[in-house]
Amino acid sequence: MKNFLTRTLTGAAYVAIMVFCTVFRPWSLGVLLLLLTVLAVNEFLFIQSSNSKRRVNKVVVLCGSVLLPLAVFVQTYLKGADFFLTLVPYLVFIVFLFVSELFAENEDPFGNLALTMLSQGYVVLPLSLMSVLAFGSFPIIQQEHPFYILPLAVLFFVWCNDTGAYLAGSLLGKHKLIPRISPGKTWEGSIGGAILTILLSVLLWHFWPIMSIFQWMGFALVVVIFGTFGDLTESLMKRKLGLKDSGNILPGHGGILDRIDSLLLAVPSAVIYLYLCGF
Q: Where are the domains of the chain?
């Protein structure tokens, strides 16, 4: 009972903070993305290097990791900013990672580089693209809308899919989705989560008709499919490392990576969908 209460309160606080920071002001969304980037990259580096010869300078990597989401936020929000100019500090950071290994005399230099570069592609880039959802110009969008609608919709879709999959899987689940990676996930749960999320997209279309109803439904389906892949990807990583959670920063829920794993593939896929459907 105590664990259930802790999990419930933590989950409610997490959702409240995510929603508030997303809708309050553009700068609050930017701060949220920077905070998530630091916390998620720190967890990723810790779990990947804890039982290996790979060693990275966390302070350098964490400081460098915030440069990309900051550059994308500035460029998309201010619109007139020179994207290459804002990107230069991040490019310097990437070059520095390679050059520093020439002099560090680490036991596994290419393992270190692989770890740091994977942290950028797996965590930093997807979180940076949340700014594109908020402030980007998509051909598919038919009218002006508040900046927070698309990133908030992605969050709602991910949470709705997780809730629907849990409920449907608990009640109807019989056929395992990929048991070697996540024994608890079932086809019935995945289908139930998808149906509930598509129904939510219809509701969002009713309040925010910035796309057609079918485009909203397609948007939801893309988030469902690739959000599930994102969840499974993190489950595979934890299984290979022998971990239950990526961290313990969220009592009853594990780490930040455990909470945003679906977003890491859903956000890039959502951006691609919104761009491609406009042509």
A: 2-276
